[in-house]
Amino acid sequence: MQPNDTPAAASTGAKIAITIAASLLLIVVCFFLEWLLGRAGLHFIPAEIFFPFATIGFFIASGTGAVGYALFGTLLVYLQLPIYGIVACKGWINNRARRTLIGIAAIHLVAVLVSFAVSLFMRWKVV
Q1: Is residue 37 within 8 Å of residue 108, measured between CB atoms?
Q2: Whole-prediction pTM value?
Q3: Would you call 6 helix, strand, or coil by DSSP?
Q4: Among 87, 88, 97, 125, which is least packed by CB within 10 angstroms?
Q5: Alpha helix stretches (DSSP H) within the chain
Q6: Is a pLDDT exceeding 60 seen at residue 112?
Q7: Rg, the chain, Cα only
């Protein structure tokens, strides 16, 4: 490599492979932290932070009965991070990784805030 040469950009296949590996690692870390913090007595707070769409989904499906409630919320738990990974990979392939990751972070932050609000409403409604 000459001093003025720039390294080659990662190929599309490499970007997809890296994104899949990072998504799987993120899923494992989030579930581990959820389990660890849940055992520490924090109960729903880790779920509201790591999986806010599931909390929102539980609220939306609460009128459908126990089966619909559990299926919809669980489906959102398992789909949230893979969808983040797909969107991040598409942004990276289109050379808009920074913008895409900022967008994902902003959407997640809003979802966490809504999740906390929904959780407080559900606790207030039950009491």
Answers
A1: no
A2: 0.78
A3: coil
A4: 125
A5: 12-37, 44-50, 52-60, 66-93, 97-126
A6: yes
A7: 18
